[in-house]
Amino acid sequence: MTMKQAKWLVVTLLVIGILGYVHSRNPMQWGKPDRLALGPATQVEAPADCQLRGQGCMVVIDDIGSVFVRLPEQIRSLEKFTLEVRPDTELARNTGAVHANFDMIDMDMGFNDYVLERSAAGDFTATVILPVCSADRSDWIVDIFLTTTHGTFVTRLPFELPRR
Asked: Which of 76, 143, 158, 160 is packed most tightly, with the most Cβ within 10 A?
């Protein structure tokens, strides 16, 4: 082996080592992140008249409480907005984490998963940025996962983005 070949071998092994390190430290870049749920999530029916943008809607979880979910009226692709989740008092005491997954049916919109931050008042919020759909669609769905002491609950809420 010549000195030039040995240098290339060392550089190649170094690059492979760095890539392996990055992969092990940042799994969000390499695959679908695990949900916060530790087991199956119980599906909760969304209200039929839910106006998620602007008005928001109340989702009732039988025998546990309710949660108010709202997006701002004005949302645009590639611009920040705030997702707000407010559990009622009883449910807030039992909620450990809230997770949101934004998606489009039959489309690959990348990873749009957010862990919401709890405020001192017990509300949960996340700053969200949604990508532009290359097919010019605007029909989104957000799955809200609530991990509580009574289990994990998920509700699916559709909404539309205004077209540019």
From this structure: 143
Q: What span, in angstroms and rounded, lies between the C-alpha atoms of 139 and 70? A: 16
Q: What is the pLDDT along the chain (164 residues), one digit of tens a residue?
A: 788 888 888 888 887 877 766 655 544 444 444 444 456 788 999 999 999 999 999 999 887 899 999 999 998 888 999 999 999 878 877 888 999 999 988 888 888 999 999 998 889 999 999 988 888 888 899 999 999 888 899 999 999 887 66
User: What global pTM score does this model have?
Assistant: 0.73
Which residues 6+ apart lie within 8 Å of 24 measured at CB? none
**Residue 115 has which token pair?**
């862990």
Contact, 50 vs 57, CB < 8 A? yes
Q: Which amino acid is at 119?
A: S
